[in-house]
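step: validate -> pass
step: tokenize input -> pass
step: predict -> running
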Amino acid sequence: MITQSTYKLLHPAVIDGLKIRCPRCTARMETIEAEVPTFACIECHFPMEFKEGIWHALPVERMTYYARFIKDYEYIRTAEGRGSHDSSYYLKLPSVSRSAVNADQWKIRAITYGFLRDRILPQINSHLLAPRVLDIGAGNGWLSYRLAQMGLRPVAVDLLVNEMDGLGASAHYDSHLPQPFMRVRAECNRLPFSDAQFAAVIFNASFHYTESYERTLQEALRCLRIGGLLIIADSPWYSRQESGERMLAERHSHFFSRFGIFSNSIRSQEFLTDQRLEQLARQFNLVWQRHSPNYGLRWSLRPLVARLKKHREPSTFRIYTAKKSA
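step: predict -> pass
step: emit ->
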């Protein structure tokens, strides 16, 4: 369990060597005396508080902005049967039984994780001692837990803090690690970290939730060290914009028929195309490396089956990596 003594806080705002800045106005923050560990912005006075094992870096106006999205998202995830009261469920992720809820999705996550672990993450560990990794859109924290087991120092960031599917579920991992990994409630476009402190930034099945790929990449690259690794995994890719738009319309219709809501309170980007990736590469001076894990024969045949049935193009999952240039 994370307690007040888990992290060494310094003045000005530093958590275990990680420098903190205001997520609202980007000014410097300082430690203040309060009932719970708290940093306060020297300019706008935003308080970043530590409660129930989570640093809260989402200002009230941004909480209001995301309130409908969070409510709808949690409602849908609960209705889908996400999460568990059993710690063993979280400790085994991304592995689940074949009969588990969303077993097909977890199969994809498990294959992607295996590829990351064996082929990509060793690049981070090879030249730095316990490098920091920023896990954006961490959900219940399963990937951060796996990263910590590898000797990396993950920081898990998400909007959700509930105990089933959000950062609150990360408490299940605490007693199984030498030190619990840091978790922060924040949005991906306003991160509470000073520049160039992370060896890697990972978006694991989360990049497509952003409302602006440009703003999110700009913020992620700001947090990366020179030469640091940017990783985008398991965001749906389509060869044509039209295919992604059709998928989105189908999903909204499905959500409304099943849950009574469209789940479109924010304008998430939802999918990737080569054109979008090329635009981002030009804008941020990136050279993408594309990786295609083997998801099995059935998965590889999906495009052919869709054409034969005259259905729309199915999504493809890939891993994209790029290094931050000087």
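step: describe -> The chain has two domains: 1-51, 54-323.
step: cleanup -> pass
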